[in-house]
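Letters spell out the chain; the tokens describe the backbone. To illustrate:

===
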Amino acid sequence: MAGKKSPARPQLRLPPSAIIKRKPLSPTARRAGWIGCNFALNRIPAEARIWLVTTIGPQSSAAVPAASRPDLSPGRRDACATVIATPEEVRARFKRVKPLKEIPVTQRGWTLDVLNVVNRLGKTEFTTTDAYIFERELEQLYPDNRNIKAKIRQQLQELRDTGLLLHIERGVWRLP
């Protein structure tokens, strides 16, 4: 197709914590030594996910991705409403996370992991000290880093610069 430009594709990466290495195939396997991986979708921050199809459950008015509703039997899933996002909505959501592309790949994993931690706090407004609760967890993900608290602060600032966090005052942050 000469002259036709292909559509833009997201250039965002998964955080390293979302990639779970599997054990290598046995020596007798056709592809001996091959190592696969699984993706832990729950380790990708909600802001970095762009839903095209969502399901509104019969007991909830909030849109919930169909794949995350294992609690519903197939019959009850049929009672749910399926909502398909318009191209404009998808573009707006992508535009919101596009600044993550500007963060170097080596740092992006940290940024996404800290964003996940912020989401897990369950608050729209939080302090830097609240984020430190996950220091040990981040230390396990990044064992070579000996300055976890400083890195958390740095990544909160990165998230502020991308517009995914608002800095209210010293040590106080808010999700937009």
